[in-house]
Specification:
The complex is a heterotrimer of chains A (135), B (388) and C (354).
Chain A: H1 5-17, E1 19-23, E2 29-31, E3 45-49, E4 53-62, E5 75-82, E6 87-92, E7 105-115, E8 122-130
Chain B: E1 4-11, H1 22-36, E2 46-50, H2 54-58, H3 63-71, E3 78-81, H4 87-100, E4 106-113, H5 120-128, H6 143-158, H7 162-176, H8 190-194, E5 198-200, E6 203-204, E7 214-222, H9 223-229, E8 234-243, H10 258-271, E9 280-282, H11 288-297, H12 306-311, H13 328-331, H14 339-352, E10 365-372, E11 377-384
Parallel strand pairs in B: 2-3, 2-4, 9-10
Antiparallel strand pairs in B: 1-7, 1-8, 4-7, 5-6, 8-11, 10-11
Helix pairs in contact in B: 1-3, 4-14, 7-11
Chain C: E1 2-3, E2 9-17, E3 21-24, H1 25-32, H2 36-39, E4 46-49, H3 56-69, E5 79-85, H4 96-104, E6 111-115, H5 121-135, E7 140-148, E8 163-172, E9 179-191, E10 194-195, E11 204-205, H6 211-230, E12 239-242, H7 249-257, H8 261-264, H9 270-273, H10 280-289, E13 297-301, E14 306-316, H11 319-323, H12 330-335, E15 338-339, H13 342-348
Parallel strand pairs in C: 3-15, 5-6, 5-7, 12-13
Antiparallel strand pairs in C: 1-9, 2-8, 2-9, 3-4, 7-8, 9-14, 10-11, 13-14
The chains are: A mainly beta (135), B alpha/beta (388), C alpha/beta (354).
Chain lengths: 135, 388, 354
């Protein structure tokens, strides 16, 4: 079977670096490439660096795992609202299920998202974690 | 625009149909619908079939001609419509337009899904394909998880309680005990829902519709022809359909399905009625929270009061607006591509007065509301015993 | 071997990353029925554990991003080379540095390669950046030293092999430096003390043979060789950061070289986070940079089985005061921890066959 290389490669850098789309007419930002603004319909879209911190907008702990996550264990999925208001869906890591809260500040983490198979390509991308406290 | 009427309905037993294949299920429902309409196969001019993911579930694409072939519809055109859980609701919508436009006089709408040939974790992955594959499910979002995100916000914004979610499931299970075709014909309690295993918190297993095999079929024709086939045609009074963003995170407020709001307003307007005129409704309770939000989106109650509406028993059979007398997706079962058609089968039975022990008394006007994915598609139909 | 006459070959940014999970060695010992008395000599209390979604690549990227945070004047588009040293890359063929390059936004015109030399691939990456920066081949180089250290279940290595790493932005006559390199000295021999055969999952080792003929002989030879070239003695150094395969070897080797405990303890990580293999001594260096004063001198000595050692003399500069607060310190990562038991550790590492 053809590996998933092309599909993963098309979006890899956006997923690694949290690059988003911004409409230069109405200012709407979204994760993922778009050529037409979903709000105002303008075609003036530029690729922008999205902020790497935000807050948990909603969350859930997934116990019934999809096949891709076999053996991974329960995990927290959330909608994160970034500092500029852009929302995206991401896993929250380095956090116990009982500690996640709506409004919890989080920061970008670089993690393994999955793999095609033990001998296929590996997928990396963004997840979010509680902000590492500094002394 | 011509009026449209339903003249035949058929539905298989929903559940784990280990001995039946996708095509067998469809033919079973389709033959029953033709028999119900006292109609020969050769009278059907076209087939509109809703199916979500036969490719993933049973390795079959191009299902429309396959089903037409196995039903022996010969050379008749067959269309497959895919809108996730709203596939056959949308198929019915297109079929209505096909007849209303005058292109066809008699068409069949089918819906079918064969889900139990793969494991639960594989099925969970297939469901997730109804969302944004690159920006949601790629990162681990499952469909139950999306509705859990919605439920969490609804709880925070409106104080909706887990007990209220559970009551939706309790009601629908109770209704299903009176539906011989339902997957789960047993009662449950709020406590049992709340102590059932967590799928994606705050949603428990008993907050979620099951994995189901099944099919449903409907024969519809122009209102002028209806009396030729049945003494009790049920008329399509109004319909509406709308879309929303594929990804949940792209919606400004995730506690409402804006596609439901828009689709229902179109349908009410076309039917010339208001929410209070609905006597019985089949709503999309793929997850308990979805039924509560649908009460609000359809205007059955104020925004944020959906939890209260179930708690006060207003949607019980015998209540102000009985919802999901069939048992709903939760207890009747949710064979994804067949669900929208099954909702219509139930409302037609209710309006004909043929719903047996679960009959809503004096039902004149009924509604179906069918959601796809996390709310990216919604299609609403309003039916009546009398023509507009 | 090489003494840099100028002070212009510099570290412009540095950063580390250590996963959040820890396991106490008594938990590992309990799983295997091992006596703690037998393990006391390792002088390791607990080790870091990679999360189920972490590997050498994710640690490398996190460390690289922290190094860039401490080098705000460096545009990633000006990075001319990225070298990653490790012995646990998730792809046997496909460089980790390619993924790091994409993750930090390096330009397409960048030189990328991975190094493997057991636990000293990371310092090889540093040497490559130093030489290419000094020769003018690159403006900035990014050297990464990180591992998700592999260990055979039940083997003594399991009590020390852990996950973590660091990264360094290196330049010549460029940027606001936190330290400069004064000299570098390497040794290498054919000493089969520790190895992993191709297509075999876990490394094997020669037990006590890894000590005298391997670790001590090479670390001492590289350190004394460098000090001789620089015409310096242990008194000239404020810190020594040797490779840390456990808690006792680095203290012992420092003592044999004539360094007091007070010079080795500030950079000692292994007792509380274990052995990051390629990332071990480089992360010890970062821990020292987190606390050192301008003008202080550090002796860094890596050790890679097989075997070889790279020694560096590094002098801290004023930029350290401006930059150390720009990213989490090694101490911040050490303090961030969540204990797991052996069963969870085994699941995270996929040591349980599925």
């Amino acid at each position: 079977m053809m590996p998933k290389s092309p599909r993963i490669w098309q979006l890899a850098e956006r997923r690694y670096r949290l690059l988003g789309s911004k409409c230069t007419v109405c200012g709407k930002t979204s994760i993922g490439p778009r050529s037409v603004c979903p709000v105002c319909g303008s075609e003036k879209i530029e690729t922008v660096q999205l902020p790497s911190t935000g807050k948990v907008y909603s969350y859930t702990v997934v116990h019934m795992l999809p096949a891709e996550k076999d053996g991974y264990g329960p995990y927290i999925m959330a909608i994160v609202e970034l500092e500029d208001g852009t929302r995206l869906t991401a896993e929250i890591v380095d956090c116990e299920p009982e500690d996640v809260k709506i409004g919890m500040p989080v920061e970008l983490a670089f993690r393994l998202i999955g793999q095609e198979s033990e001998h296929g390509i590996i997928y990396y991308g963004y997840k979010f974690r509680p902000i590492i406290s500094r002394t | 625009m011509r009026d449209v009427a339903v003249v035949g309905i058929g539905m298989t037993k929903f559940g784990e149909r280990w001995d039946k294949q996708l095509r067998d299920l469809f033919v079973e429902a389709a033959n029953e619908a033709l028999k119900d309409a006292s109609m020969g196969k050769d009278e059907v001019q076209a087939l509109f079939v809703g199916n979500f993911s036969a490719g993933s579930f049973v390795g079959q694409e191009h299902v429309a001609p396959l089903l037409a072939d196995y039903l022996s519809l010969k050379s008749k055109p067959a269309f497959r419509i895919e809108n996730a859980c709203a596939s056959s609701g949308m198929a019915f919508n297109l079929a209505c337009m096909a007849i209303a436009s005058g292109i066809y006089d008699i068409v069949m709408v089918g819906g079918v899904e064969k889900m139990t040939d793969i494991s639960v974790s594989e099925a969970t992955s297939v469901y997730a394909k109804a969302m944004d594959a690159e920006w949601e499910s790629f990162f681990g979002l499952t469909l139950p998880a999306a509705f859990a995100l919605i439920a969490r916000r609804h709880m925070v914004q409106y104080g909706t309680k887990p007990e209220q979610l559970a009551m939706v499931s309790v009601k629908n299970h109770r209704n299903a005990t009176k539906n011989p075709l339902a997957q789960f014909q047993f009662e449950i309690t709020v406590e049992r829902v709340l102590t059932s295993p967590i799928v994606s918190d705050p949603l428990h297993v008993l907050d979620c519709s099951p994995i189901t095999d099944g099919a449903a079929a409907i024969v519809l024709c122009s209102a002028e022809l209806a009396k030729k086939y049945t003494d009790t045609p049920i008329y399509v009074l109004g319909f509406g359909a709308a879309s929303d963003s594929i990804a949940l995170h792209d919606r400004p407020d995730i506690t409402t399905f804006s596609a439901t709001v828009k689709a229902s307003r179109q349908a009410y307007k076309m039917a010339g009625i208001e929410p209070k005129n609905i006597n019985v409704a089949e709503l999309h309770d793929s997850f308990t929270i979805a039924e509560i939000i649908s009460y609000e989106d359809l205007g059955f109650c104020e925004k944020g009061k959906g939890g209260l509406m179930i708690e006060e028993g207003e949607t019980e059979i015998g209540g102000r607006i009985p919802v999901n007398p069939s048992g709903g997706l939760k207890a009747r079962g949710n064979p994804i591509g067949a669900t929208g058609a099954a909702q219509i089968v139930e409302i037609v039975q209710q309006l004909r007065g043929e719903a047996g022990k679960r009959q809503v008394s004096d039902a004149e006007i009924g509604m179906t509301q069918n959601i796809g994915g996390s709310g990216s598609t919604c299609v609403v139909h309003i039916f009546g015993r009398q023509r507009r | 071997m090489t003494v840099f006459k100028d002070k212009n070959t510099v570290i412009i940014g540095y950063g580390s990353y250590i996963p959040r999970y820890r396991i106490k060695i008594e938990d590992i010992a309990r799983a295997w029925g091992e006596s703690l008395d037998m393990l006391r000599g390792l002088r390791v209390q607990e080790i870091s554990v990679k999360g189920p979604d972490e590997d050498q690549v994710t640690i490398a990227v996190e460390a690289a991003r922290n190094a860039l945070r401490r080098a705000p004047e460096v545009n990633p588009k000006d990075i001319g080379a990225i070298y990653s040293g490790s012995e646990s890359k998730p792809y046997a063929v496909k460089p980790t540095s390619t993924i790091v390059a994409a993750a930090i936004g390096a330009p397409m015109s960048v030189r990328l390669a991975d190094y493997e030399f057991a636990c000293k691939g990371g310092t090889e990456a540093i040497i490559s950046c130093i030489s290419q920066a000094r020769s003018g081949m690159i403006k900035y180089g990014l050297a990464i030293a990180a591992d998700c250290s592999q260990s055979l279940p039940g083997d003594v290595l399991e009590y020390t092999a852990s996950a973590g790493g660091s990264a360094f932005i290196i330049g010549h006559n460029s940027g606001d430096p936190v330290a400069y390199f004064e000299g570098q000295y390497s040794v290498g021999t054919d000493t089969p003390d520790f190895w992993r055969r191709d297509l075999i999952k876990y490394p094997r080792h020669g037990g006590r043979f890894t000590g005298e003929p391997a670790y001590f002989r090479h670390v001492i030879a590289a350190a004394t060789g460098l000090m001789k070239e620089l015409n310096m003695t242990p008194e000239d150094f404020d810190y020594i950061v040797p490779h840390q395969p456990n808690g006792s070897f680095p203290v012992e080797v420092a003592k044999r070289l004539g360094f007091g405990e007070s010079k080795v303890l500030p950079g000692l990580l292994s007792p509380i986070v274990g052995n990051f293999y390629s990332g071990s001594s480089p992360t010890g260096l970062c821990k020292v940079l987190d606390q050192a004063k301008p003008g202080q001198r550090i002796l860094l000595v890596s050790f890679g089985s097989g075997a070889g050692s790279d020694a560096f003399s590094i002098v801290v500069t004023e930029g350290i005061e401006r930059k150390r607060g720009l990213a989490p310190k090694v101490e911040d990562f050490i303090n961030r921890k969540k204990y797991v038991d052996y069963s969870l550790y085994a699941r995270f590492w996929r040591k349980i066959a599925l």
